[in-house]
Amino acid sequence: MNHSESSAIARILASPFQQRINAGSAWGAIVVVALCASPSASFLAWSLVADAAQAPAIRHGAAVSGVIAAAALLVAGWMMLIGNLLQQNRPAMARLVPGHVARLRAALLLAWALAVLAITAGPGFALEQPLAWACGAAGGLALLAAALRWPVLWIAGFLFAFVVLPAMAWQGPSSFAESVQAQWRQSGWLLTAIVATAGAAALAAILSDGGGGTRAPYDAGHALGRLFADSPQAGCARRQVGAARPYAAWLERQLARRDSPVSSRLLLGLGPAVHWTMRIRHGLVFVAVGGGICAVVVGLAAFLGRDLRGVLPWLSFSLLTGASTPALQAAAQLYRTQREQALLVLLPGVPRGAGLNRWLAWQMTALFVFSAMWGFLLAGALDVLAEVLQQGLVKRSGGGDMTAAIVVALLPQVVFQWRSWARVRGASGQEFLPSLTPFLLGGVALLLHLWAGVAYLPMGLVFMGLAIAYCAWRWWRMGSEPTAMPIGRLAR
């Protein structure tokens, strides 16, 4: 391989990360890495002040959380790389650029080999099972990449993990595990060679030279994205499809009325991302998802004959952390409707200057508070269900403290809804940063509760008082700031 080829492959591998840096999301990646490392750092700090009898267990927890964080970062980076390579394997470019697909395949195989070697050299040698870790990493990364290319593999993987394996283990868990271990001890190198060969072939097949095989999944992915899109790429006045139908129906209803309020039309002009019809839809989706997860947990418990009720408090924690995320990330999506905003502010009766700034802040606040309260309701319902099934289950599972810490830290995020809207930047990798705030504040609340014995209620009142004071200061500042709409027109 000559220098030009190696440079081209290096640029291909660096392209997903370079694109995020160009989009202004380098700090976002740094924050994500820091948050992934924070549990291990917290455990290590805790072990320094804990009792000598508890220190080994705490350090073990730090090691486990570090391994989980590293695995999560590896999987996220691998998925980002695969998605970027699939985007570069456009149906037209695959044939028009000489050697394009060959370079993509070489870059993909090189990244796969480096990831497998890193996993083997890290936990593989640390646990004295490098061959097993190499085999698992090679097969797992190749399967994940293939699933991103052919989504039907997700269904096959789900059936294998939750139907085939439990059915095989149901016949005799110990004998099944012993047979697998015996086969591995006898033919470990052969199985690793087979998995590595099959993985390399699958990775090479992911990227193709064009034709119907490349265009079909490419077009299917775009069609699926259009079906589930909350709003079109630019503007909100065109026909809405898929998930935005509740918003589209309300839009048609307001346009048909000659006496519809100006505030209602102005709110519709901001787009589906910030409208109450979509918040109701997202709330119903959360109910369906939460009910489905509970049904899966109960079904697995009945099928495997195991007690999985301790999972319910952790499900409530997950629902609580995800309920308000769409409302926090809606601010960046206001950029899509800048043209509509420029026209709507000319309507008679629309607030001007400070009035418009404060009106938008109140609307965004109501949007967030509704989502947060819906998350509180769902989390509380799951915790009540867990307590009904078994008294004291929430406290013993450990999920109760995590949920309480997030409850304390969730509502103070309202400060992100009182921005200088005329200077808000467009959608970038930093738009998810407000969603990470409850984990930081929640971690502080959890440490204060465990170390200093501070109750959650006083901490929640202090955090909320500081947030209200900041919002009051922003309300005063908005009186002298440029008018909010169009959103981001003064952004640098």
Describe this structure in words.
The protein is mainly α and 492 residues long. The protein has two domains: 3-221, no CATH class; 229-480, no CATH class. The chain is built from 20 helices and no strands. The chain has helices at residues 3-22, 26-49, 55-88, 93-96, 100-126, 130-149, 152-171, 173-206, 212-228, 245-256, 262-269, 276-304, 311-323, 325-333, 338-344, 354-389, 393-397, 399-410, 433-452, 456-477. Helix 18 (399-410) runs parallel beside helix 20. The longest helix has 36 residues, at 354-389. The two termini are 43 Å apart. The chain crosses the membrane at residues 21-49, 61-86, 106-125, 131-147, 152-169, 189-207, 284-305, 311-332, 359-382, 457-476.
Proportion of strand residues? under 5%
Number of domains: 2
Helix percentage range: over 70%
Number of helices: 20
Poorly predicted runs are 227-241
Note the run of SSEs as H and E: HHHHHHHHHHHHHHHHHHHH
Terminal residue distance: 43 Å
What value does the Rg take, in angstroms?
26 Å
* Major sheet attributes: none
Mean of all residue-level pLDDT scores: 72
Shape: globular
Structural class, from secondary structure content?
mainly alpha
Extended strand count? 0
Keywords:
single chain; 492 residues; mainly alpha; 2 domains; 0% strand
Strands, helices and their partners?
Layout: H1 3-22, H2 26-49, H3 55-88, H4 93-96, H5 100-126, H6 130-149, H7 152-171, H8 173-206, H9 212-228, H10 245-256, H11 262-269, H12 276-304, H13 311-323, H14 325-333, H15 338-344, H16 354-389, H17 393-397, H18 399-410, H19 433-452, H20 456-477
Helix pairs in contact: 1-3, 1-5, 2-3, 3-5, 3-6, 5-6, 6-8, 7-8, 12-13, 12-16, 13-16, 13-18, 14-16, 16-18, 18-19, 18-20
Keywords: Membrane, Transmembrane, Transmembrane helix
Transmembrane segments: 21-49, 61-86, 106-125, 131-147, 152-169, 189-207, 284-305, 311-332, 359-382, 457-476
